[in-house]
Amino acid sequence: LVDVALVRMSAEWASLLEDVSLGFVCLQDLDEEARDDREMVLAAVQERGWELRSASPRLRADRCVVLAAVQKHGDALQDASEELRRDQQVVLAATRASYGASALRWAAGELLEDRHFALQAVNVTGLSLQFLSPHF
Q1: Angle (CA) 91 97 98, round 5°
Q2: Global model pTM greater than 0.70
């Protein structure tokens, strides 16, 4: 059994969606409605994770959108909601995609003091140690 959802969109919206996906148009140049459209934001962040900063607050709190962004650009974690900066899976994904584990500087403080999380982060890269609690 397969569910199929058909969505009708205007040719103008479809063209804009394609332009965003290809990087011809940035989210920051779009209106509020487009920056709050999940499909539009996903099209942007799946290619350019850093564009999460231009997404609506609602979508910066959407786990799927944030995961797509941080997997492409780890430091996009800085633009995620506070709740998602405490999410171990999101933060570890960001750590994997960031240079020198730099995404960890945006993680919630309590996460950086969690021993279980610290071990996982160090397994991703030993460079994580520079951002973890000094008592490890």
Answers
A1: 85
A2: yes
